[in-house]
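Lecture notes, continued. The same structure-token format from the folding unit now serves as the input rather than the output. Read the line below as a description of shape only.
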């Protein structure tokens, strides 16, 4: 109706100016081309494309791996495997002390002007990470028996599975230490190469064990440890020589290139910033892993195993979000001006909306895919997957904005938001899971993310707006 009225008004006033319309259209198209070209030339977009390509490759292989695990272990074995994974994930996060993000936060901005200081931060991070990783692994080996009973692992093999998982966890943490340096340096191609080799080797070993009839929960955990160790060695070889020295023997002896003690200002700065990141990470990993523990407490093991499959697939659907997050951590750490932060918010929202639309377009393929790849015994996971996809899309919008806490030096706000998320997830989950089953934990996840957004976003966006 509006277009008809506009055309009629132009006609009554005289002939239509065709050349004027063409100029407007050409001008709009020119601006769109410039915007598209600028977006592609943007470093974040380029690096995101690299990381996303690697994530898609890893996701494809990961689907094969999850199919082999699902068919080889069955729902009950898959549930036990996920319980060990949840326990070791929480323990390894506790041992990290929040230093991964803290190391990236300090190394990335120092690369251009203060490279010697960046070396010192890497050396301090390497030493602290080694001490915490070995320390927490020894503790987990000692408390494996009571912990296995607490999380209701199978009575006879539970402690043994936790000990195997502890050794695999140590290999993963040491590999992650080297990957953090590559991440801080922005060497995303090398980082993705090491991750892709990890996934490819995992698929190969899992498939061989399944074909040979030797795949069980213990062997699956052993494979995880072996592939993490290989990925760590490859990452170390890909790290530039001077940065390897920062993580090597000189750092372990307590000295660095300039002869200053390793436990000096750099260590204090890392730990000062990371203590709140540590609290935030603990709450975050509890929020990520508590679903499996709660469902295992209230529901039968086969149901938990089916849910684990749907959760794994939902996590693969969030590969796009993970790739963006990987690139943005060092990038957002370098945001120093209010104008740059406001531009970051606008571009993040636009990028998240575009990616959310792409995920929704391919979502209907999940039903035939699950039935074909995993079999009829996992058919009930289809509806669980669609429910969890809502959580994935919400997180896609939220997580880039939460990262503003890094350049704004608001680690306490991160800890508060993650703590509120974990508490709401636990309370709502305990209340709803006995009544609604798996859908109760999905409702708890949505409520927890909403609370996290309400706690974190208003002060962060207000600070950005005020400059």
């Amino acid at each position: 109706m509006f277009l008809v009225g506009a055309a009629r008004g132009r006609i009554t006033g005289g002939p239509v100016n065709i050349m004027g319309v063409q100029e407007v259209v050409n001008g709009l198209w020119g601006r769109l081309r410039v915007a598209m070209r600028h977006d592609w030339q943007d470093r974040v977009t380029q690096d995101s494309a690299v990381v996303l390509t690697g994530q898609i490759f890893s996701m494809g292989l990961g689907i094969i791996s999850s199919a082999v695990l699902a068919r080889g272990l069955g729902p009950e074995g898959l549930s036990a495997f996920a319980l060990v994974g949840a326990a070791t994930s929480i323990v390894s996060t506790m041992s990290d002390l929040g230093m991964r993000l803290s190391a990236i936060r300090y190394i990335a901005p120092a690369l251009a002007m203060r490279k010697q200081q960046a070396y010192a931060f890497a050396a301090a991070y390497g030493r602290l990470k080694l001490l915490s990783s070995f320390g927490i692994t020894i503790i987990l080996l000692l408390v494996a028996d009571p912990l296995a009973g607490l999380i209701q692992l199978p009575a006879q093999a539970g402690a043994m599975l936790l000990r195997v998982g502890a050794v695999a966890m140590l290999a993963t943490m040491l590999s992650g230490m080297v990957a953090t340096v590559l991440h801080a340096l922005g060497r995303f191609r090398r980082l993705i190469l090491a991750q892709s080799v990890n996934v490819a080797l995992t698929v190969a070993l899992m498939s061989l064990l399944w074909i040979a009839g030797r795949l069980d929960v213990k062997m699956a955990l052993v494979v995880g440890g072996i592939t993490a160790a290989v990925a760590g060695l490859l990452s170390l070889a890909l790290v530039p020589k001077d940065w390897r020295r920062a993580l090597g023997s000189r750092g372990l002896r307590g000295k660095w290139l300039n002869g200053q003690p390793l436990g000096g200002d750099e260590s204090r700065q890392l730990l000062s910033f990371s203590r709140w990141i540590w609290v935030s990470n603990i709450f975050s990993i509890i929020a990520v892993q508590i679903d499996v523990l709660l469902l295992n407490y209230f529901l039968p093991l086969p149901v938990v195993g089916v849910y684990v499959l749907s959760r794994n697939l939902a996590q693969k659907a969030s590969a796009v979000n993970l790739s963006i997050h990987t690139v943005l951590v060092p990038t957002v750490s370098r945001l120093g001006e209010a104008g740059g932060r406001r531009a970051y918010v606008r571009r993040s929202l636009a990028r998240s909306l575009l990616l959310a639309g792409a995920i929704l377009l391919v979502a209907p393929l999940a039903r035939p895919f699950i039935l074909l790849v995993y079999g009829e015994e996992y058919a009930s996971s289809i509806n669980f997957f669609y429910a969890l996809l809502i959580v994935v899309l919400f997180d896609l919008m939220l997580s880039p904005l939460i990262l503003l806490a890094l350049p704004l030096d608001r680690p306490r706000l991160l800890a508060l938001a993650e703590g509120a998320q974990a508490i709401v997830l636990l309370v709502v989950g305990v209340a709803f899971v006995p009544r609604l089953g798996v859908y109760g934990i999905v409702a708890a996840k949505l409520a927890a993310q909403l609370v996290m957004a309400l706690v974190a976003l208003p002060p962060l966006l207000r600070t950005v707006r005020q400059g």
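Point for the exam: The radius of gyration is 25 Å.
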